[in-house]
Design goal:
Oligomer: single chain
Helix content: 25-40%
Shape: globular
Largest sheet: 8 strands, mixed
Number of helices: 6
Distance between the termini: 28 Å
Number of strands: 8
Order of helices and strands: EEEHEHHEHEEHEH
Structural class: alpha/beta
């Protein structure tokens, strides 16, 4: 399904960023989908994931952070990124006001989304999905990046590869176990990019996302 370009105003100092909306005619939910630190909203992972979700009736609003919008390599500081997350969520509620909205993000995008939600949660956001939560830099296990998660009030779904170098599961699983609204689904052999040999892990991500969203929506 073809994506529709949208502009997302952020602030006078930041300006606006680009977005891509895929809205199936039978959409029952919408994901506000943020990209990772290494690639923008048009990366093949983002495009393939969005297309797969659309086939299940889940709309997506992908968007760029300013550093990708402006062709820079270094990710934006959290305060800037969180303002963009907020603006994208607001835009999603304007574009699809009658269906449930979920935050979501690949790696950096998911972490920035949850950091924003730990401080302010729009009433229309039903939950957040992490496509590879970056718990720590590769080779330096730590849990400090997860400290804010206890302040996130909406349901959380962590989708993690068992070979993800940025998330030691022996550290992440106990964190999720202590969070009353968190669910953890692991993908055997998948790395941080969700590559696992010849397996179509993205379709597995789509299936897990659709099942969890249906569960949250049923719960009201």
């Amino acid at each position: 399904m073809k994506a529709t370009p949208v502009n997302i105003p952020v602030s006078e100092t930041i300006g606006e960023v680009s977005g891509l909306l895929i809205l199936p005619p039978d959409a029952r939910s919408l994901l506000v989908l943020a990209h990772g630190a290494g690639a923008g909203m048009q990366h093949s992972f983002m495009e393939t994931l969005s297309a797969g979700l659309a086939a299940t009736g889940i709309a997506t609003l992908r968007y760029n952070f300013p550093f990708k919008e402006n062709g820079k390599g270094r990710p934006d500081p959290p305060l800037v990124a969180e303002k963009v997350v907020s603006a994208a969520m607001k835009k999603s509620s304007e574009l699809a006001p009658h269906i449930p909205v979920f935050a979501a993000g690949k790696s950096f995008g998911g972490r920035m989304s949850s950091q924003y939600l730990s401080k302010s949660t729009p009433e229309f956001i039903r939950g957040i999905i992490f496509y590879g939560f970056p718990l720590h830099p590769a080779g330096t296990p730590s849990v400090s990046r997860a400290e804010h998660l206890s302040q996130v009030s909406v349901p959380m779904l962590f989708l993690q590869g068992t070979k993800d170098a940025l998330a030691d599961l022996t550290l992440l699983k106990p964190i999720c176990d202590k969070l009353p609204t968190a669910s953890l689904v692991t993908f055997e052999g998948a790395d941080h990019a969700f590559k696992a040999g010849k397996r179509n892990v993205i379709q597995e991500l789509v299936d897990a996302t659709a099942q969890w969203i249906a569960k949250i929506n049923r719960a009201g």
